[in-house]
């Protein structure tokens, strides 16, 4: 394998490039040399003719390994550029697509697989959701060795669907989260212009987006008690810094709807003339009041969970600033109330629910937290705690998150960034000052 190809295979997917063309892995994929969508090859990683000839002359077994080791962007480039690679790809399309998706997602494939089963699992009954959650928990326990296997029950259409969902929904939403975080209070520290997003950082953002969608699915069952139990099962099985990742994205999503409520409040108020043709009581269909903070928060939670990534993508990218009436119509159909609750002091990420869990369902994490077991920074890898997490807890273990860490830290997605970035641009010092303002003593002291 040439050095050029090795570099190509190591190249991360550009995470913040909004114009990046989506690879097309559908069944009607154009053959090399045929017409294709404008810009498809221009934005893809290039492979020059000399490199083509050398690669195409390799034995079929090596070419197959190259295809299997490529992420989605590189796989797309290879089969676009080379008829030889394209023909070999077609011989075992499901295998190469599954392998490429697994390379792209890494350990996040566990979450993507669970989302796929809930997205296309037919009727999402309480039993089916519970079964998927249990399978997800089991896979997490074996995350170091787990991978998507082409021989598994996934069909080729399902693998293609997973790839499409990743490219068209997950990746753009991860970019939104990156932009949201990089525009926060630590803008100068994140500094994406001179220090591009790393593969590890990107996978943390992608993991948060998948798990947000998983949270939306497992809380979609009709029984509120089962929905609450499912949400607990999801959150309580995450590492504490991973719970922070999920909560960061959840809070940013709730914030989107909170701003929308301000924008449409006059249009959907029961006293708006548009509802004059409806008698009262009850409250007119399509009318909502956001003045009461309790009601407003329940609307924000319900809309966030029920809408999932589909609604969030629509309101973020498909509705313009002057498209008020369309926004109103969409939100009138989408606003629902929910009280699990997720946010707030009494929510699943809050103080009271964590204390209750500690008393009723103690875990080894509680013992490690009480003992202040060592938990040092072990490098930038999505399988271990990030530098920011180890810094705030002094290199010792803590399973506290949410209310205990503070919204201020999550406003710049502190647990997503690599240690290299934080140390280079003063993020460690910025974090230390924020943490000191949040807590004058270690919050673990209040537990034991």
Average pLDDT rating: 88
* Structural class category: mainly alpha
Number of helices: 21
- Helix percent band: 55-70%
N-to-C terminal Cα separation, in Å? 57 Å
Helix and strand element order: HHHHHHHHHHHHHHHHHHHHH
- Spans of at least 5 consecutive residues whose pLDDT stays below 50 are 1-6, 8-21, 28-47
Outline, from the CA principal axes? globular
Largest sheet: none
Q: Give the radius of gyration.
A: 24 Å
**Number of DSSP strands?**
0
In percent, how much strand structure appears in the residues? Answer: under 5%
Give a verbal description of the structure.
The chain is mainly alpha-helical and 448 residues long. Among the domains are: 89 residues, no CATH class; 96 residues, no CATH class. Helix content is 58%, strand content 0%. The chain is built from 21 helices and no strands. Helix 11 packs across helix 14. The longest helix is centred in the middle third of the chain and has 29 residues. The protein is globular and about 75 Å long. The N terminus is likely disordered.
